[in-house]
Amino acid sequence: MTVQLEDVTVHFGNKHSGRTCALEGFDLSVAAGETVALLGPSGSGKSTALKAVAGFVRPTRGRIRLGGNDVTDLPPARRGIGVVVQQYALFPHLRVADNVAFGLRAARKPKAEVSRRVGEMLEMVGMTAYGRRFPRELSGGQQQRVAIARALAIQPSVLLLDEPLAALDAQLRADMLGELQKLRREVPDIAIVYVTHDQSEALALADRIAVMRDARLVDIAPAAELYAAPPSAFTASFLGGANLLPVSVDEGAVKVAGAVVPGLKPEDGKSLLCIRPHAIRLEPPEPANAVEDVARLVGRVVAAQWRGASSQVTCLVDGLADVVVRVDVPADRRVPELGAAVVMVLPVEACSLVPAEVG
Ligand SMILES: Nc1ncnc2c1ncn2[C@@H]1O[C@H](COP(=O)(O)OP(=O)(O)OP(=O)(O)O)[C@@H](O)[C@H]1O
Description:
This protein has helices at 46-54, 96-106, 111-124, 140-153, 170-186, 199-205, 223-228, 233-238, and strands spanning 3-12, 20-30, 35-39, 61-66, 69-70, 81-84, 158-162, 191-196, 208-213, 216-222, 243-246, 248-250, 253-256, 259-260, 272-275, 281-283, 294-306, 310-317, 320-330, 341-347, 352-354. By secondary structure, the protein is α+β, with helices and mostly antiparallel strands. The strands form five sheets. The protein has a six-stranded mixed β-sheet, sandwiched between helices. A five-stranded antiparallel β-sheet has the order 16-20-17-18-19, with no helix packed on it.
């Protein structure tokens, strides 16, 4: 079932308590079988958008449609949506199987159907052996799996997930991410909206990513496209921490700090060069092989952080005040000393141009 938010605006508070605009003119359409991640910094309006779809907040303006039907005025329980939030929110006094059965019983489904469906759901999330336990007797990851089983038991055609992995440690998060990928294959027709501030979750799960900032949608595109060719400076740095370097145009050539970026064509209104930290190579300052399709920036190392599989090295570029370049140096390459002069090699196929921020 398609989920549509049309020009949705949500204001909280009043003139006494102070008004917050949590969502402003928000448009989004999620097709049946599609997963869209809402990605953005804290307070950007992601949860509010999701709550508007679930019916937990009432839009100040705009409409919510499910399968083409206007549900803006329907209470949450009548929207037929599965919702999973960050803090599991299982009923503590009910056993696992009863938690999963809750929505089916509320809908007065026959006993045999309830027990068959609960069995299927627990099997799908690998929790068959835990049906008689109480939530407090489960780990965080197990509780979250039960929460997902409960949300899916009512066979919703829309599933809303609000930071479902945020309360889990790194290993569990990775395991659950795998489970969610599996779930998508098992319920292929469901529309999923996935709220996260974690770009790796968004990249792993979403068909499309909607990047949000200050109550608005900034960019929306297929995940790979948004990563490879971000349309805005904000998305470039939020998704993958891209470097953004000011360019000048000289006789039809794009230049960074006076160095030509061969093969890159100037584009109207785009004055920043975007390149990911892992795409840059560091070399000692020696004469270059001129035939390479690369830009070469001269500078020096000002900081280095070891991160296990790689080190992040921060460099300043000669001739570019106040601009730092972050470079990921893989563990098998030598990390230059602090203060060392280096050449940052920018392969042209990894460079794109984005507009500078306005306002
Ligand atoms: N019930 C509420 N009353 C008043 N203000 C609210 C309410 N809920 C959210 N807000 C405000 O609306 C804005 C958007 O909040 P929202 O929870 O949608 O952000 P978010 O992107 O989901 O953030 P996070 O990643 O921190 O959960 C914030 O400024 C928040 O303080």
